[in-house]
Amino acid sequence: MARRTASATPPQASEPLGANLPLDVAIAHRLIREIIGLKLQPGSWLREQEIAERFGVSRSPVREALRHIAKQGFVEMHPWRGAQLVELSGETTVHVFDMLEAMYGVVAKHAAQSMPGDKLPKLRGYLKLVDQAAKPGVSMQERVGLSFEIGRYIGKWGTTAKTYEVFTHVGNLAMWQHRFMQTEDVFARRSKEVHYVLVSAIETRDPVRAEWAARAIVDLSRDRILPHIPDIAKT
Fold first, then answer.
1. Are 23-85 and 90-233 the same fold in CATH?
2. Mapping DSSP to helix (H, G, I), strand (E, B) and coil, where does residue 22 land?
């Protein structure tokens, strides 16, 4: 069987990267977004030279970028061969969601206690997007992406810089597993309801209710993902 690569024929012109970030970090962020967005599939090989040509950089920052991605659990490094995108086992996925539920609960609780008042209007503004995402016909990827965007915003004000980094790493791994999830309008409506509770709890400085809502949001996704993961479904 022929091995898959991240890009069989690299584009002629290099792709721009985000400003104000070291090259290796910018490349890592771009590749992680593509992994989460399912543009790169489990088992794919990410070749240093192909990625370097794609972004118009040397292989050194690409090598560091792949190491960043490996530390986050998305790829395995193989000496002299490159980096291969992994497939998380069902057991690992269960652990990822258990960790995310606990972490998001704590993050939301702290956000209810410490989010600055001038940051609350933006949080409330997300609910308009939640309303739109709950409408029939919106893709699963859009719905999940919005939920994680809200979680990251809450995370900025409910944790320290270092623990925020860990929180986003776990969140990225969980978001990646949403490829097993089917779009359901019933799920979207329930998710909307719980997001309203979460935002209201943070606004009213109710840490207990905020923690409950954050955990409930993770539970909603987990319940719809785990039955569809192959090695869990067989047990």
1. no
2. coil
Tell me which architecture the domain covering 90-233 has in CATH: Up-down Bundle (1.20)
Q: Take residue 116 and report the two structure tokens written for it.
A: 């600055």
Q: Residue 83: which H helix or E strand, with range?
A: strand 82-85
pLDDT band at 222 (very low <50, low <70, confident <90, very high): confident
Q: Residue ranges per domain, the chain?
A: 23-85, 90-233
- Is the separation of the CB atoms in 200 and 184 below 8 Å? no
In one-letter notation, the amino acid at residue 3 is R
Backbone phi, psi, residue 83, to 5°: -115, 135
pLDDT band at 8 (very low <50, low <70, confident <90, very high): very low
Structural tokens at position 39: 């543009």
Is residue 152 within 8 A of residue 105, CB to CB? The reply is: no
Residues whose CB is less than 8 angstroms from the CB of residue 38 and which lie 6 or more positions away in sequence, other chains included: 141, 179
Phi-psi region of 57 (alpha: psi -120 to 50; beta: other; left: phi over 0): beta
pLDDT of residue 19: 60
Alpha carbons 143 and 130: distance in angstroms, whole number: 8
Output DSSP code: residue 77. Answer: E
User: How far apart, in whole angstroms, are the C-alpha atoms of residue 166 and residue 178?
Assistant: 19
> What is the CATH T-level fold of the domain 23-85, as seen in this structure?
Arc Repressor Mutant, subunit A (1.10.10)
